Every structure is written in C-alpha cells, then in structure tokens.
Structure to design on (88 residues):
C-alpha cells in the first residue's frame, strides 16, 4: 500500500514536470516563431523606397513621404522641395 502511494506520487510529479516542461517548450517555440515571423515580415513586406533627392534606397517605415515622393530624411525632403525642377 505504501509503495503504491509512493508510485502514485512519483507518477503525479513526473506528469506535472512533463506538463510544465511541455508548456515552457511551447511558450519558447511560440516566442521564437513570433520573432522569426516578425523578421520575415520585415524582409517581405518592408517596402523599399527611394529617396527622390539622393536616390538612396531605404525601408518605407524609415522614410519620409511628401507629395508622392519619398525621402531619406527631412534634410533631403526640404532640399528636394526647394530645388525641385520646374517640370516635376
Ligand atoms: Zn536622400
């Protein structure tokens, strides 16, 4: 009888530990997948745009948008807008 209880306790402890490990693993995997997905999304949908002034390519979320043109920074935006050729 005593042995049976000890076996039962060991079984429960092992089950609990296994469940905890499994949850930790799933959490870790979920976090890793989310991180990888975010990086992949950045690569896939991270639209590259070209600065209208210096023609440097940069990600859309780092660029400035004005008058249907993209710029790498406020400096080039201002320069482009003041030095814009008349036909543009
Ligand atoms: Zn530029």
């Amino acid at each position: 009888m005593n042995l049976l209880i000890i076996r039962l306790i060991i079984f429960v402890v092992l089950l609990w530990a296994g469940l905890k490990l499994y949850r930790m693993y799933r959490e870790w995997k979920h976090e890793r997948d989310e991180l990888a997905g975010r990086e992949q999304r950045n690569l896939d949908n991270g639209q590259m745009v070209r600065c209208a002034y210096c023609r440097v390519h940069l990600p859309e979320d780092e660029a400035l948008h004005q008058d249907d043109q993209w710029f790498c920074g406020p400096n080039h935006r201002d320069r482009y807008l003041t030095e814009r050729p008349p036909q543009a």
User: Anything to note?
Assistant: The chain has a mean pLDDT of 88. The chain is about 60% helix and 15% strand.
